[in-house]
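One-letter codes give the sequence; the fold follows as tokens. Both lines appear below.
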Amino acid sequence: MFDDGTFNNRVGGNSDAERNLISGNSGYGVFFYNNGTNHNLIKNNLIGTDVTGIQAIPNTTGIVIDGISYQNTIDSNVIAGNLEMGIGIDITGSDSNVIVRNRIGVALNGSALPNGMDGIRISQGPVGTVIGGSPAEANIIANNGGNGVFLMSDNCRETFISCNSFYDNGGLAIDLFPYGVTPNDAGDADDGPNGGLNFPVLTSVTYDAMSGAHQVEGTLEVAQPADAVVQLYLAAVDVSGFGEGRIFLASITPDAAGHWSTSVTGQPVDGYFTALTIDAERNTSEFSRARNISGIASVIVESPAASFLSVSPNPTSSRLVIQGADIQRVALFNSLGERLREYVVGETFCSQLQLDLSDLPSGMYVLQVLSQGVVVTKKVVKW
């Protein structure tokens, strides 16, 4: 615990010999707290795993920054296998903390090792958080039971989220409260976390077989488009059809009318692309709807069959029974990707959950279950 003005301390270092194992705590693995706690460095540690960095020995949350603790750096750690968040940053004044080069929800060998809830959760007013930056500073934020990055409060501002790799998170890659995709608004006049910044719209993707290049074009509706940057990514398509940006490809400056375009080579012919906005104050938007040469992403893809998990009856008229081993989290979405319900199990994981769907209209829904370290996606039909 770093408390009461502690500053300029380092836990870990550049070499593996300096690495610490910070796991198995009933509370937080690392805790920064109270006014004046600043300029501390957490580097190259294993937080929530065993000594190999591959198996989970969970803390409740990996790292928490709270109580006006500012300008701390979290660099090159494995933050995975924790019961709740990988990283939580809370309270107005917990500003300008930097998160770079970490594996969040990813084991040391690159395999999935989810944190049970969000990879990074920021709430109650921190300003100026940096998550990634350049390709060399990018985090891998993947496999987490909730969102990759979740900004929960309207006064969370200037959160800079750049060049990171997102995939296979249970929620959105980047979610600006409220839960689920926040639609763009005319003129970007609304408010909210990161100012409710509009995401870009990809209007077309074309492919030139001779050059092997994709031409990606789009629009951006914000107050000053020419002062903003659009970042283009190859997408690992989210169940909502929006995001997730897995591989950063390019930064583009729109013209004064908000039009932008770029050409990228070396990508799969039928690959999907997505984009986000970063404005002059470094507020970052959610990811756009993904698009490929055939059009926008709208098909919800189920996970491969998981023998350790069953969902029945499906279709159902009311009740849904989920059975499996070590069920940690369950979330239900509608066909638009809007999160309707979420159930988070405590430290003692369960083997069965029952969901009452009787109050929902007939239609198709998407169920995501975090079980045995895997996020399983299933289509559910309600009669």
Remarks:
- The longest strand covers residues 319-334.
